[in-house]
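Human: Can I borrow your eye for a moment on a structure tokenisation matter? Separate attempts, laid side by side, tell us more than any discussion would. Could you pick a protein and write out its sequence and tokenised fold? No explanation is needed for now; the record alone will do.

Assistant:
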Amino acid sequence: MIPFVDLRAQYQSIKAEVDEAVHRVLDSCQFTLGPEVEAFENEFAAFCGRRYGIGVNTGTSALHLSLLAAGIGPGDEVITSPFTFVATVAAIHYAGARTVFVDIDPELYTLDPARLEAAITPRTKAVIPIHLYGQTADMAPILEIARRRGLAVIEDACQAHGAEYRGARAGAMGEMGCFSFYPGKNLGAYGEGGMVVTDDPDLARSLRMYRDWGAETKYHHVLKGYNYRLEALQAAVLRVKLKRLEAWTEARRQAARRYAELFAGGPITPPLERSDGRHVYHVYAIRTDARAQVQAALAARGIHTGVHYPFPIHLLPAYADLGYAAGAFPHAELAAAQELSLPMYPELTSEAQAQVADALGEITADLSRNGHASPATPQRA
């Protein structure tokens, strides 16, 4: 069996240090915020190249509070991509704003900057570019348009810890960058966690208050806030993992190179990596017109896969009130119908990858012989 991710293997490699960190927190009896969280905030902010880190309980909360800190509220519009996990749009809804979608670049899966300006209205107040699968959006044109039009840029970097764009780390380009530490992320907690990073001291002050019931000091509530605090146990685990993140990222990148070599000359097209960026391969995404058959055949061979994501947000019942119909965002819709995520984690062996590649070769050949659709290559419009 080849798992989609292998958190157990990762834990075994760091077990002694993680166990010591957990016991350190238990001995301190400081379980919410406190020195462990503050230390992790400083370390992760430095990792991203930012001055301030504000730890929260989830990546969703990071997005929600960033919108509030930017002054986003009812009557405002926020532009983002429909090809993402639902949390991005949920956070906009929590802030009381309306989501406006822009289609994706079909090769990179991130917001297409060429389509951005046409979506801006007098009500637009912010853009949330999503760094999907471990690769950043094309930030230069997005930032240029946003600055010229007076829009806040809040990076959804929840899948992009350590990704880079023209030398800048994910999370370090907009006013704020938002991260998730869900267990399956490249930097994952043993539970939930999130963080906002910023260089702006006023934003950092507001974010700290918003996450802790709006209080600047105990019982002195300046804002109407939330209980979004990061737990010390999670911070302690994340501090252990952060020290290894660069090595783990390079292992993922090496695994991506092995996949590309294994797929060379065959029907599978490896994901495109920006020439001016650094992909950290949170997800290794391929595409096929026969996803259900390919996924089932891989599962029958003991190879676990995922789909990220089977529905673009504008076609989910929960967000039908946004008023978009099928066909509104054809690149996002096609990606949602074709994307298949292969096993990808630092501990993935070359032998396991060869098994995946061999199995895909056999499955696609069988489908082709039987007249089924073949793997798809995304085409630029």
